[in-house]
């Protein structure tokens, strides 16, 4: 099963979105990193790096982020992976709520990482080059 990481500047936002995703796709592993190390608004590279390293598995990891520094921390963690693990991670530059819900439902239905990446690459507002 594909893993999903929500990387947000807000712990409340990340946990709230996780709650929605779990209700929509209860058998998908939804991970969150929200806020900085001290629980304030911000992004936590160490936590993001640990999650990405642990969940960049054969099933795959799709990452959604809210703001630029969350994206940068995710990208730095991905860049540090070996090529095999990198091939199992996709950083989505799509709207965090809408597409994370859609991808969680697709993953819950057994959709492959390849099909999910194909869909996200064709998403009209995807701003990242993977």
From TrEMBL:
Database matches in PROSITE patterns: PTS_EIIA_TYPE_4
Molecular function in Gene Ontology: phosphoenolpyruvate-glycerone phosphotransferase activity
Alphabetized InterPro entries for the sequence: DhaM (IPR039643), DhaM_N (IPR012844), PTS_EIIA_man-typ (IPR004701), PTS_EIIA_man-typ_sf (IPR036662)
Catalysed reaction equations from the record: dihydroxyacetone + phosphoenolpyruvate = dihydroxyacetone phosphate + pyruvate
Signal peptide (residue range): none
EC id: 2.7.1.121
GO terms (BP aspect): glycerol catabolic process; phosphoenolpyruvate-dependent sugar phosphotransferase system
Keywords (A to Z) from UniProt: Kinase, Transferase
Enzyme class: transferase
Positions of the PTS EIIA type-4 domain: 1-130
Example of a GO cellular component annotation carried by this entry: membrane
Entry keyword Kinase: yes
SUBUNIT field: Homodimer. The dihydroxyacetone kinase complex is composed of a homodimer of DhaM, a homodimer of DhaK and the subunit DhaL.
Job description of the protein: Component of the dihydroxyacetone kinase complex, which is responsible for the phosphoenolpyruvate (PEP)-dependent phosphorylation of dihydroxyacetone. DhaM serves as the phosphoryl donor. Is phosphorylated by phosphoenolpyruvate in an EI- and HPr-dependent reaction, and a phosphorelay system on histidine residues finally leads to phosphoryl transfer to DhaL and dihydroxyacetone.
Record's protein name: phosphoenolpyruvate--glycerone phosphotransferase
Species this protein is from: Anaerococcus vaginalis ATCC 51170
